[in-house]
Amino acid sequence: MATEQMGLTDLLKHGLEDMYYAEARIQKALPKMIAAAEDEELKSGLEKHLEETAQQITMLEEAFEAMGEKPRSEKCDAMDGILKEGDSLLKDFGGTAAGDAAIIFSCQAVEHYEIARYGSLRAYAELLGLEQVASLMSDILEQEEAADDLLSEIAEERANPMAAGTSAEDDEDEDEDDE
Fold first, then answer.
1. CA angle, corner 89, sides to 171 and 105, nearest 5?
2. In sequence order, which residues have a C-beta less than 8 Å from that of residue 109 and are 6 or more positions away?
3. Which of these CATH numbers, 3.30.230.10, 1.10.10.10, 3.40.1550.10, 1.20.1260.10, describes 8-165?
């Protein structure tokens, strides 16, 4: 239990430290996913998100500065667990018909965690009147939501049907047969 009164500013700072650690871990994990991806759009989307992750680390550093703090990491057990599970799924499913679906499955767990955290951090910053921090969190949140949307699109259009042994063309043929 904390010996001093902790407030929302402290929670915001902790969250920034948590995400600073998480983004650095994601930056190290993404190249393995990129190398394992077979779908070109998935590979391209992950490469783009790797570049965005580097930008997000810089934006987190700017948020620390805006609060008069030095960038600092706080170990994020949740992200470590999500990435460990992703690595295990890559070992189990990499190179199979379900490989890209497994990559998306893992990456969306990361994205959803980030979306939850950045949404909260933005709300805290807004409530505390830290407009620059709120704006930075909003920018990161938009990138994370766009990455999640792209992953969903690739999963629904190609990766999941491929893993199921069907294709989008099979579904279209079935639709035509129904007419």
1. 45
2. 82, 85, 86
3. 1.20.1260.10
**Nearest to residue 21, comparing CAs of 68, 80, 66, 70?**
80
User: Whole-angstrom Cα distance, residue 115 to residue 121?
Assistant: 10
Average pLDDT over all residues of the chain: 92
Tell me, what's the pLDDT at 4? 77
**pLDDT digit string (tens) for 7-40?**
999 999 999 999 999 999 999 999 999 999 999 9
Q: How far is CA 64 from CA 22, 72, 179, in A?
A: 15, 8, 59
Domain boundaries, the chain: 8-165
